[in-house]
Give the backbone structure.
Amino acid sequence: MHIAEVENSMGGQVSRVRNEHTGSEYLRADRYQYLECTYVLVLNFDNRAATLSEIVLNHRRDTKNEATERSCRDGLSGLAERIGHPTSADRGVRTWRLKTTTVTVMEGRRGDIQIRYKPAY
């Protein structure tokens, strides 16, 4: 999908942003609900064709709200159960290579989470 199509399909949930260093545009949603957790959603696009190239979800741990963090962990565990055993795992980074997508989950020492979905070529 092209950036304008994605932007239109998501309505007012996203804003278009330009990367100051590369000049490429991406879409961003500051409060996106996914897997029982609130993430910052970033949709990256291929510079040349302006087609969706990667979906990135970032969650910064909230140390004041343990119930929210437990819910985020449960949602992440549910994702891992659905897609099976990772093809690689090392120091807080797990990767699954599926038929059409590569999924990478990174968990930081402070409890931050990043999930990346990238087309498998």
In short: Helices lie at 3-9, 66-83. The chain has a mean pLDDT of 89.
